[in-house]
Amino acid sequence: MAKKDDRNLNITIKNQEEKENEIVVSISTILKKLRKYLTIWIVVAVVFVVFAFGYATITTHVSKPSLVALISFSYKGVEKGLDPNGRKFEVNSVKDPAVIEAALAELDIDKANLEPIRQGISFLGYKPKDAVDRITLYDKVLEKNGNVSAVEKILETSYFPTQYRVSFNYNNTTLSDSEAVEVFNTILDKYQDYFYETYGYNESLGSAVATINYTDYDYSEAVEVFKTNIKTLEKYVKQLSKEDNTRFRSAETGYTFDDLYESINTIESIDLDKISSYVTVNNLTKDKESALAYYEYRIKALNRAKAQYEEEIAAYDASIAAYQKDQIFVFGNGTDSTNTESTVASEQYDKMIQAKNDIVTSLAQTKQSIEYYKERQEALKNNPVGSSSKTEKVEADLDALNEKVNNLVELVSRTSDDYYRNVTFKNAYSVLVPATNTATDKLSHILDNAKQPLIILEAIGFMVFFAVAFIEALISDTKKKKALAASAPKKDSEVNDTEDSAEEVTAEEAVEIIAEEAAEADEKEASGTKADNNTSKNKKKK
């Protein structure tokens, strides 16, 4: 019996030595320790929240958040990255110095802020939905089939933004918050005027016509200047009339482009021709010798132009005759009589025909001008210069003509501007979302600035809180484990049972189980002693 007990004792010691380096931490103990420090952690968390929001408030006040607006462009060609004139579109034109200067002038703000404002404005383009859809489609094809052409399509897919997120960082300016919002929105509004002036009515054309000082020229020369300018204005209005499919009538002037075209024709064919004939018939000139020299020069120059036009027409005739037209074959039912062949003109052929027609028109006008100057030259050579009364009359007529032309230029300007604003470029440029800086916006910026520091501080606080609870739980469970090791040795089966159950119970529960087993052993030992005593007494009685 003694040997068996010694053997059990050795096994117990051996098992204890193997588990001396094991670390057992009870989850329930960790939770108890977490509850112990929960109040402290909540207080610390609240302090971190206050600190994070205080930090965000200060940084938001010191470093002002950028103002944000959303603008959109919608006109033919913008999806290809082109402006209304067909050139490359530059969104940076929104912050053109002329636009910013106009906004500052309207708000009566110091222009010293112009350059800092310009540098503070930036743009972020949004991808058009159709481009995203195409890329997504090709990407799905690539994933499914591994098609090389899909890769090429993705690489070839190009897009140009039609909407832009405009940001304004005004930290380097002297503007207050309210001034910055007002300036930013005014710049975006003023760009609409800049857009119309740049791509709408040809302001430079109107300025050139209106600013001509006809008094600097001789009478015949003044007539030519008016004729050239009226022709230019007429051509511009005719082009607008062709583009207008709505027969637009301006609510501001009451005119259509056809109305304006007829008015220009009337001035040219009646007013201008009347003055021209009066000058020619009466030989009116400010300087006869200078006029004769001018006519001689114009005749020579026009003859050179005439020769050039004739050469170009001959070249086009040769090219057109040698040009191979596209052929179309129509086959019948197999018989020779039903097969037909025809030719159709290609786009290049049409262009050559149109170019030739334009040159023919220019040649005809040149010939007419040559005849006109020859007649003027002969008349001036052979007839005396007109009287001063006739000179005064032609000057009055030219002054009246100048007033009519200027009035006509003003009507063209207002009508075309109305047309571009309300038809062609009605939605070409728009501010979808203007900039704001309300109390809600400020609070939103503070919340955004507080997120990162708050997350970092709360994460550190929780890690420290959990680490303290874990360490205390580890210390507590280690002490309890040592108490287990110091308990009385058990039999092999009891030891194994205890080891199996230890995986399922906590350290506190294990201590309680051992205590109960020890009590049961004491009771068994006490009952065994009583039984031995009773046996001895019975033997003595016998």
Strands across the major sheet, in which order? 2-3-1-6
Structural class: alpha+beta
Q: Structurally, how many domains make up the residues? A: 4
Number of strand segments:
6
Succession of helices and strands: HHHEHHEHHEHHHHHEEHHEHHH
- The fraction of residues assigned to DSSP E strands is 5-15%
What's the helical proportion of residues?
55-70%
What is the CA-CA span between the terminal residues? 29 Å
Q: Summarize model confidence as the mean pLDDT.
A: 77
Number of helices: 17
What is the alpha-carbon Rg in Å?
50 Å
Shape descriptor reads elongated
**pLDDT below 50 for ≥5 consecutive residues: which ranges?**
1-18, 490-505, 536-542
Largest sheet: 4 strands, antiparallel
How is this structure best described in words?
With 542 residues, this protein is α+β, with helices and mostly antiparallel strands. It folds into four domains: 2-36 and 443-527, no CATH class; 61-200 and 432-436, no CATH class; 219-285 and 391-424; 286-384, Helix Hairpins (Orthogonal Bundle). Helix content is 70%, strand content 6%. The chain is built from 17 helices and six strands. It has helices at 2-18, 27-36, 38-62, 97-107, 114-120, 129-145, 148-156, 177-199, 203-210, 219-243, 257-281, 288-322, 347-382, 388-424, 439-485, 492-502, 507-541; strands at residues 67-73, 121-126, 163-168, 326-330, 340-344, 429-433. It has a four-stranded antiparallel beta sheet. Helix 4 crosses helix 5 (114-120), helix 9 (203-210) runs antiparallel to helix 14 (388-424) and helix 15 (439-485) runs parallel beside helix 17 (507-541). Residues 1-18, 490-505 and 536-542 have low confidence and may be disordered.
